[in-house]
Amino acid sequence: MNDIIAEDVNSQSGQPPLGDRNKPEEEKKRRGAIWLWILAVLLFLAALVAGAILYAEQATRKVEATPAPQPLEAAPKPVAEKRAPREKVENAYFFRIDGKDAEGRAASFDYIIVTSDYTWVKGSTTEVVSNDTVIPEDEAADRIITPKVRESFASALDVIAVGLASREGDRAAEEERALARAQTVAGWISKVTDASIPLWTLTLGQYDRGACKAQQDADSSYERPVLLASVRARGDGVNLTEAFSDAISGHDNLPSRNCYSQFELVKIR
Fold this sequence. Notes:
Elements: H1 2-13, H2 18-65, E1 86-89, E2 92-100, E3 106-114, E4 118-120, E5 128-130, E6 133-134, H3 137-144, H4 147-154, E7 158-165, H5 171-192, E8 199-206, E9 227-234, H6 240-248, E10 264-267
Parallel strand pairs: 7-8
Antiparallel strand pairs: 1-2, 2-3, 3-9, 4-5, 5-6, 7-9, 8-10
């Protein structure tokens, strides 16, 4: 009976049952949870995008800050030295060399180095030793300037007597000795050549091994050798001193101008 009365009361009041009244609140909460979840996802995606942008910006700045690698510079190539053509003629070696003066005028030379069988007696300006025996002065011209060498002088435009001294001793004294030796060689040349051929002396002074790399070999010596030279060809007005200095330089089998303390060419005939 009481139950019937309660139902009548509820029906008469027009209000839904208690369970139905709770459903909108639960729906509201559910929708709020969905929106919170959607917001969290959006925030997470925004964080990912922002992180990617920040990483890209940092990478770009790093690339810009890193200097571009500089191209490697090629190591300077050493100046190539050439080998002077050499020919053995009896007791001497002929080096065929060419040079130019400061104005570009050319000249060609035979640089003649008597083999190491013949060298100046140490300290002497007139005596040459061969196989430990001093050559008599009156025989020196014929024994050193052999017939084949004389033939080359016969067709030369100029002939040059060269003198030098060894590295030992006072420089001034050795340079005087070099000049005296050039004059001795000029005397030998005068005996075996025609007087019409111009004759020069070339004083090289003192040999400087410290400034000259070791280019000598077992066949010849550049410290106390007997040296001669001739001019095979020359341009008009050529400066022979400059052209000859240029000619002997830049060879791996000849001493350069820097190997000696002087380079003085003087015409004496």
